[in-house]
Amino acid sequence: MDKDRIISELTFKAVRSSGAGGQNVNKVSSKVVLTFDLVSSLALSDEEKELSLKKLKSKVTLEGILILNCDEDRSQLKNKNIVTKRFLEIIEKALIVPKPRKATKIPRSVIEKRLKDKSSISERKQNRKKPDL
């Protein structure tokens, strides 16, 4: 994964923030919307695209576009930096290949201990019965 190439494919759009905030919200477009086209990206290989589409299924549109918003700060530049950093973290997490699980065998000592405990409980319950005369 080449971060510089991926960052060059990002598109940013400045939008007015929603909600309360007074006069500043009404005149300044400080909210930043980041869009990244996963399907037609040249920075990612086909395997990386498949893996990221699979892992980011809930965050990607039907066309394969990842959309992230940031309106945490009053500064547009800070919001752009925050959303870019968040995007890179999401992509890095999505590209991690999980290790295959190895099936392990139950140790013989564990099996013997379970059977021994089972028989001792059975014996204890047998001793509670009234004897046959």
- Number of beta strands: 3
Mean pLDDT: 89
Shape: elongated
Order of helices and strands: HEHEHEHH
Unreliable residue runs: none
How do the helices and strands line up, and which of them pair or pack?
Layout: H1 3-8, E1 11-15, H2 23-27, E2 31-37, H3 46-55, E3 65-70, H4 76-94, H5 108-127
Antiparallel strand pairs: 1-2, 2-3
Describe the structure concisely for a colleague.
With 133 residues, the protein is of the alpha+beta class. It has helices at residues 3-8, 23-27, 46-55, 76-94, 108-127; strands spanning 11-15, 31-37, 65-70. It has a three-stranded antiparallel sheet, covered by helices on one side.
What does this structure look like?
The protein has helices at 3-8, 23-27, 46-55, 76-94, 108-127, and strands spanning 11-15, 31-37, 65-70. A three-stranded antiparallel β-sheet has the order 1-2-3, with helices on one face. It is α+β, with helices and mostly antiparallel strands and 133 residues long.
List key phrases describing it.
133 residues; alpha+beta; three-stranded antiparallel β-sheet; 5 helices; 14% strand; elongated
